[in-house]
Each structure stands twice: as C-alpha cells, then as structure tokens.
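Table 4 source record.
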Amino acid sequence: MTLNDIVQAVAGSLKAVWPSRKVYADEIPQNADGAFYVAMEDVEQTRGLDRQQRRTVGVQVLYFLRSKDTLEYLEWADSMFDHFRMLDVGDRQVHLSNQSARNDSDGRYYQFLFDIDLRFVEAAPASEPMETLKTEEVVQ
C-alpha cells in the first residue's frame, strides 16, 4: 500500500458520497469553489522489532465553499464523520483515528483531518534456505 493508494482511496470515497463535486489531489486550481482537495499532512515511519514497520499518515481534506453553497457545515461534518470511519485501500480496510472537523473562520473552506495507522512486516530477503547450509560428513 503506497501513499498514492491512500490519496486515491480518499478521493474515491469523496466521489462516492458527493459524485457531482470535483476532487483534487495534486494542486488546487484557481476556480476550486465547490470542490474537495486531498493532501497528506504528516507521514511518519518507525521501525519495530526485526522487519516490523509502523507508518502513521495524516490526511487533510478541504472543501472549498462557493457563494450561496447549500452544503452546510454541520451537515458536512456529520457526513464526513459517518463516511470516514474506515477506508478501503486496495485489498485492505484501514481504520481511521483522530478525526476532526473545522470551519474556517474566514468562511473560505471546511477542513477534515484524520490519521491512518498502518502496521506491516517487510518481506524477508529472497534466498534459498539451503544456500547457507554447511554440510559435513562424519564417519563413526
């Protein structure tokens, strides 16, 4: 599972809930009113025992308001909390934590933040099991 897979999964989930709204992930165009923007906020990876890894990914979703927008903040926040508890990323379902919703004080956008905590084990290096075995013949 790559970081790009996570961004694509978030974008797909947003499109499933709001099919008429555009979702951007690379850059925000000038006329993005009424659209969503998905970005990685913080990504951290720590090593555990042996080949175990833990990666924490902070995700930010922005919804850019347009004038006379019918998508009210409380309704939007409820919908985000309801639809972003878990996320299907490829063949895995990941649980989301630390969800929070914010309303921009200037009235330009709504912000939804959450974390994804991934744990995985690196694949062992490829080698033949008998490759490093020493054999000795002993006659008794």
